[in-house]
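For the sake of transparency, this paper describes our internal protein records without simplification. Because each token names a local backbone shape, the row as a whole describes the fold. One such record is reproduced below, unchanged from the form in which we store it.
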Amino acid sequence: MQQLTGTILSAKTLKTAKVQVVRRWTHPLYHKTITRRKSYLAHCVIEDKVGDKVVLAPTRPMSKMKKWKVLKKL
């Protein structure tokens, strides 16, 4: 099962958190570190605050955009 680690950007809606996942890797030719950021909407029933690190896991679609759930805080 694929799991992602990210930071909560927004927790304004009920049982939903916007989580930003940062991926870094080295370019094979230029050897420069590349950073990519992507935001996911995740189902969250635990108490969360902006800036918390969380672990995401895929789940069944709960809405049009919400296909991830928060497993735990780090």
In short: Residues 8 and 51 are 5 Å apart (CA to CA). The mean pLDDT is 95. The radius of gyration is 14 Å.
